[in-house]
Design a protein that fits this description.
It is elongated, with a radius of gyration of 17 Å. α1 packs parallel to α3. With 89 residues, it is mainly α. It has a single domain, classed as Substrate Binding Domain Of Dnak, Chain:A, Domain 2 (Up-down Bundle). The chain is built from 3 helices and no strands.
Length: 89
């Protein structure tokens, strides 16, 4: 029983880690969507760049819906990608 308990504890920890990463990424994505709205309202971003940001958000949202149990590292890679889209001129 102790071995089973240890096994499930490790599985639970991994699951929690993945769900925390998923939730954090979902919140990050929500904030990026709001930034797009701000940019659209203020017209402070060139239309071509704004379209690139919108496409990245849309693609990432679709990916997230299909990959809710992706590895933690994949959530991090996707976040870095979005940050780079928003940071590039």
């Amino acid at each position: 029983m102790v071995k089973d308990g240890e096994k499930y504890r490790l599985q639970d920890q991994e699951y929690k880690k993945r769900m925390d990463a998923y939730n954090a990424f979902e919140v990050f994505l929500y904030h990026m969507k709001n930034r797009i709205k701000e940019y659209t309202i203020k017209k402070s971003v060139q239309p071509k760049r704004l379209k690139k940001m919108e496409n990245a958000i849309s693609d990432t949202t679709k990916w997230l819906e299909k990959n809710q149990v992706a590895p933690v590292e994949e959530f991090r890679r996707r976040k870095v990608f979005l940050e780079s889209v928003f940071a590039s001129p």
